[in-house]
Batch of 4 targets.
Target 1
Amino acid sequence: MVKVVIVNGMPESGKTTFQEICVKKLTEHNWNTVIKSSVEWVKDIATYCGWNGEKTDKNRKFLSDLKKVLTDWDDAVLKNLASAIDYYHYTSLDYVVFIDIREASEIEKAKKAFNAISVIVRRPQVECNVYNNSSDMYVFEANYDFTVWNDSNIENLEVESYNFIKDAILDNNNNIYIPKEN
């Protein structure tokens, strides 16, 4: 059984920290977890093209544009994610797979394709920043199932993350809850 959680938020909102807290808590309860990103494969392609790994505004725009080209061409990014998620379906273990996806249209497609839930990590301190790429500019355009607030300190984010796990991932028996597909 595989539970897919799509995570989004502005740059520096705490998405990675939120996922790491969730993974730690779920692992403590013997659940298998994985963190993926819809842009991992795009970064591999960008590296092949000469990208040096830096996260400058120019490079963020390059990655965003490259991802859009691959998506428009053949939904290649979603297909790449699907093959990765299929791997976990074929194991005999249960997994919670966290996937970073930035674009609203891609979030909706992935929710349908993977019977996934979505969560946005909000940190007001970074939400006033201006970005030059569509992946960062339109974070709030998607409809999210859950909101996690990272507006205080790490202890507060831990509480928010634990509440998310309780409300969105585990059922009353501490088993992974997967709703029936519509």
Note: The beta strands are 2-9, 32-37, 95-100, 117-122, 146-149.
Target 2
Amino acid sequence: MKSNKVRVLFLCSQNSARSQMAEAFLRLYGGDDFEAHSAGLEPAPIHPYTLQVMAEVGIDLIAAGQRPKSLIEEYFEKQVHLGYLITVCSNAEAKCPIYPWGGAREYWGFEDPAAFTGTLEAQLAKFREVRDLIAARVKAFIEQEGATHLR
């Protein structure tokens, strides 16, 4: 049985913060219309502050089964077909190989909260800021994609 879901892959350098947040928000807000994924060029463990700020909005990434994934090993080598490949950081946008099984490609540039330095509270504030920007962008994407399907 063929799925009518739009498969979306969010790509970042490490798949430890921004792309994980985007995947979680698309799962939450996209319902049965989307299949959300995320990956990194050089995967690293999910950042503890990512886990914390997502838990603050009721999303447990670990319980949801999210984990760092490699673009090459889990998507490219398996020739996974996508409706969208969305890069969420400038590094991934610049270094991402051509993805022949991708549909539309978009770039959503978000600041890397893990690169921010300062007090613990300042760092968490940056993670929250980026989280909220990603949530808003995912909601706008869903509305845009829904409007596209209605035409």
Note: The radius of gyration is 15 Å.
Target 3
Amino acid sequence: CRELLIPGAAVYMQDWGQEHPGRRTRYDLVTVRKGNRLINMDSQAPNKVVQEWLEGGGLPGVTLVRPEMKYDQSRFDFYFEQGKRKVFMEVKGVTLEESDVVRFPDAPTARGSKHLHELVKARREGYETYLFLVVQMADVDHFEPNWRTDPDFGQALLEARNKGVHILCYDCHVTPQTLKIGKKIEVRL
């Protein structure tokens, strides 16, 4: 997030006041302004909005949604069912934007590559599998892996897609207080 958290950047914070005395900090960084664009920075928000999206009919026919489901050596963000289809989904929040192109990751992520390999394994074992890229901003052109920062993740993403993992990528409507799934974004591998 080095390109976002620069001197003079306008940021929006959640003030927890005295409501949570066990917290280490009183504030959470929620949103940052980059030019005319608001970018949500809340690392918990992508899973919340995807759960709302799934439960609200984002994918038709979903009858059961369970967050944080263990599979083999991983814990996927979601397990859900669509009729007889049993599905695992991993969610990644995307905040890196350059010239209307969004990329993930913004730092090397061995864990992200591991999740993709586990999704491929689950696919081989008969599950449907998804990677959901939540672009935590609006009005972007397309998504691509950040080959420069983490070529291993880019390669794992390409292999996952080629082995049947569905890749969903949506932008979000962002306000200083809210995040909501928006429109589908093109994925270029």
Note: Residues 67 and 175 are 25 Å apart (CA to CA).
Target 4
Amino acid sequence: DMGAITANKLVPMLSVDDIEKTVNYYVDGLGFRKKSEWIKDGRLRWCMLEYEGGAAIMAQEHDPESGPEGKRGDGMTMYVMCDDAPSFYKMVIGRGIEANEPFIGNGMHVVDLIDPDGYRISFESPTDEPDTH
């Protein structure tokens, strides 16, 4: 029976090279908040970062002995549906974060960013304006 469960949130786990840099980017830069963390040997190793409204990611520092090889971030884009992508753009630019100027595609304002590990993240909000992209 496919109707037996509901799921209301998908939380990607990012393997990162420097978790402190990741936390600074997502918290100080993009406006996420640290909801929980795992500290081992006095160092942050994993954390859950959440946005007002529920969008969330987990980050774990890459362990060269057990983690995946290759460049972080390849092949994945995270899309965050929000209420006002143009205002988000102004906020993050004011914090020194690099982001593409908002464009309109498929009825959405779109702001594209790339985090310190190369993960792509796109904040989008609905609009009635015609596509620009």
Note: The chain has a mean pLDDT of 91.
